[in-house]
C-alpha cells in the first residue's frame, strides 16, 4: 500500500510539474498581453472588450472620421466610406488610432495630413502644431476628437 501511495504521489507530482505553464509562453495568446508602465504603453489594465478604434480619411479638404469602432478594420472602412459620402473623389486613409485623443491637420488644402494621437487633447494639438511648423506651409487642424 505504501509503495502504491508513493507511486501515485510521484506520478501526480510529475504530471503537474511537467505540464507547460501556458499563460506567458511565446506563441500563446497571453504572451506579452499585459503591459507595464515601464514599457511606455500605458498601465496594466486590459483594454477590455477589444478596445475602441477610430480612423480618419481625407481627399483634399474633404474628410471622413469614425470613432468607437470595435476594431481597426471597421474604423478604417467607416472613415473611408464617410469621406466618399462627404464628396471625396480619391479618399485615402490618413490614420487609425486607439489612443483616446487625435487631431489631424491639412497642409496647403490637402497636400499632406500631419496627425497625432495621445492621451490628452493639449498634447495632441501641440504635437500637430509642431509637425505643421516643420513644414513651413499653411496648416489648419481639420479634425480633432478626444474620448473621455
From TrEMBL:
Domain DUF4189, residue spans: 53-146
What are the alphabetically sorted keywords of the record?
Signal
Signal peptide coordinates: 1-23
Annotated protein name in UniProt: DUF4189 domain-containing protein
**Lineage start:** Bacteria, Pseudomonadati, Pseudomonadota, Alphaproteobacteria, Caulobacterales
Amino acid at each position: 500500500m505504501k509503495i502504491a501511495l508513493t507511486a501515485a504521489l510521484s506520478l501526480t507530482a510529475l504530471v503537474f510539474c511537467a505540464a507547460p505553464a501556458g499563460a506567458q509562453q511565446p506563441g500563446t495568446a497571453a504572451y506579452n498581453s499585459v503591459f507595464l508602465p515601464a514599457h511606455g504603453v500605458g498601465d496594466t489594465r486590459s483594454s477590455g472588450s477589444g478596445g475602441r478604434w477610430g480612423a480618419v480619411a481625407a481627399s483634399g479638404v474633404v474628410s471622413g472620421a469614425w470613432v468607437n469602432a470595435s476594431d481597426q478594420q471597421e474604423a478604417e472602412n467607416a472613415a473611408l466610406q464617410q469621406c466618399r459620402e462627404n464628396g471625396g473623389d480619391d479618399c485615402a486613409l490618413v490614420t487609425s488610432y486607439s489612443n483616446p485623443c487625435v487631431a489631424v491637420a491639412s497642409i496647403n488644402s490637402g497636400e499632406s495630413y500631419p496627425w497625432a494621437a495621445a492621451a490628452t487633447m493639449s498634447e495632441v494639438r501641440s504635437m500637430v502644431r509642431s509637425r505643421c511648423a516643420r513644414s513651413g506651409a499653411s496648416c489648419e487642424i481639420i479634425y480633432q476628437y478626444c474620448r473621455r
